[in-house]
User: Fold this.
Amino acid sequence: MDLMANLNFDAYRFSISWSRIFPKGAGKVNRKGVAYYNRLIDYMLKKGITPYANLNHYDLPLALEEKYLGWLDHQVVEDFANYAEFCFKTFGDRVKNWMTFNEPRVIAALGYDNGFFAPGRCSKAYGNCTAGNSATEPYIVAHNLILSHAAAVQRYRQKYQVKQKGRIGILLDFVWYEPLTRSKADNLAAQRARDFHVGWFLHPMVYGEYPKTMQNIVKDRLPKFTTQEVKMVKGSFDLIGINQYTTYYMYDPHQKPPKDLGYQSDWNVGFAYERKGVPIGPRAYSYWLYNVPWGLHKAVMYIKERYGNPTVILAENGMDDPGNITIAKGLHDTTRINYYKGYLGALKQAVDDGANVIGYFAWSLLDILNGD
Assistant:
């Protein structure tokens, strides 16, 4: 916090750990955990730093996974809403900016389609998993995540927002997908990718239903919202956080869906990092991260035009390096300076073009170990 204050930061986005507040996911409160966040928030305010609190960043109390398989069970909606309400009640006198989830798509896709993340569930065709179904579980999990988000927002709006004068939203990851060629097939492939990526979550929150692309492809494997759930989900945000790092080319592979269905295979697209031998942009250290500022501009303008120009915060943006650079090079980090210069310039252009962007958070304050 002292470092941030010395650097004249005016805001800091942090996450609250559900299990640090409710070790069992519900029931008894861990007062030491509550005291920790009270100290953190109070010190931020003392230093003139506005807290932006996120309620979930991939983590789920183990007890709920063991009790009812966590995000796969509808019971998680009520338990998450109760946890969220406790946070609103306890910290909301000082925290005026709330986010329910950080990158819920990653939870559903990497946790239940390929098993890269906890709880490591997938079909055998898509990963080294002991249990799971990549054709159905990612969609069930995403559905429960959306309902959990909407239920928390509903609690906040009904009981706390007017008095506390805050706002609430969600953080969504969004890679920009550019057609590899001008062909109709590649343009449709890029749009499928956008629908299955950011549209999976944002479309229901704006329009009350999943994108038509997903409905047509996933069919009865895609859960449906009840009439009451549509009312709760539609419009369930005051602001949208976008985590945007990179851009890829998309093309139509012109192949039939595989025998073993899954969330990623449902996209039926090909990924490319270059066009005619020219990389889409300079690569950072991570294999997936390319420096493509124009992709940020297109992503922000896409949200403006397709989703009614909501209030947007660019909530994550940055690049990594091998981690073995010298102190001298680290103090004259022109590679990272150029990355931020390009992306901030693209964001400024989006604002000039009418996008309702109100803030920017760099990722990250300190070195991290999980970039690759």
Observations:
- The mean pLDDT is 97.
- Residues 309 and 366 are 32 Å apart (CA to CA).
